[in-house]
Specification:
single chain; about 230 residues; mainly alpha
């Protein structure tokens, strides 16, 4: 008996758009709303109007440059400690928020490693812990400073950004405030997309950056070991 193969819902998309949707990994209901004729702006609006806010947030996280996406997640994690129904940060969480902020201001290797160390103390399963891990994975190596570089795979930090934002929203003890918090976080991410020049400009930048980083990553991992 022949096996029927479901049609590929992404088959008619341009390569950059297909890459973005795969990277964003929208939920099934959101994926079912995908229309090849939609612009990204229309797709985002469709998902927001249909209460597919989580998928909309993942879409923004997938398209933003690393530093901008980390700033967005950091603001969300900080807000989660200040909003009505939020939990005041512990001393470790406060230190992690400060360390990530230092990396955002000065994204060098020392600040990157300091942010991760602070995030570990805060708990890597917390919003700021996820952000701190994303900071660490945004660098050129995940190895200690004294050993040869081990580059992280391109895009590995992106799911942590989306995860941090989603976890920050649901950390509210008042359940009725969670949906508007999701919407607020999405709106803030959208403003960053607009400042980059809009969806089309942001997509071209994201796709070009990924291709460059993928080529550099493959070159690094396939390089012959030093003798």
């Amino acid at each position: 008996m022949p096996v029927s193969i479901a049609p590929d819902p992404l088959a008619s998309l341009t390569p950059p758009m297909r890459w973005l949707i795969e990277r964003a990994a929208p939920d099934e209901p959101a994926l079912a709303m995908l229309n090849p004729q939609h612009t990204l702006e229309q797709l985002y609006a469709t998902w927001m109007g249909a209460e597919q806010v989580i998928s909309a947030i993942r879409l923004i996280a997938a398209i933003l440059p690393t530093r901008e996406s980390i700033w967005w997640a950091w603001v969300s994690a900080r807000y989660a400690t200040q909003m009505e129904g939020g939990t005041a940060p512990s001393s470790n969480a406060h230190a992690a928020l400060a360390a990530v902020e230092q990396w955002i201001v000065r994204p060098d290797d020392a600040a990157r490693r300091a942010a991760f160390e602070a995030g570990e103390k805060s708990g890597l399963d917390s919003p700021i812990g996820l952000v701190a891990t994303a900071v660490f994975l945004s660098g050129t190596t995940i190895a200690p400073p004294s050993v040869p570089a081990v580059p992280p795979p391109p895009g590995v930090a992106m799911p942590l950004i989306a995860g941090a934002i989603l976890l920050a929203a649901v950390s509210n003890s008042k359940s009725d405030l969670i949906p508007p918090t999701f919407v607020s976080f999405a709106a803030q991410g959208l403003e960053i997309v607009k400042r980059l020049g809009g969806w089309d400009v942001a997509l071209q930048l994201a796709h070009d950056t990924h291709r460059r980083q993928q080529a550099e990553y493959e070159q690094a991992i396939n390089a012959p070991a030093p003798r």
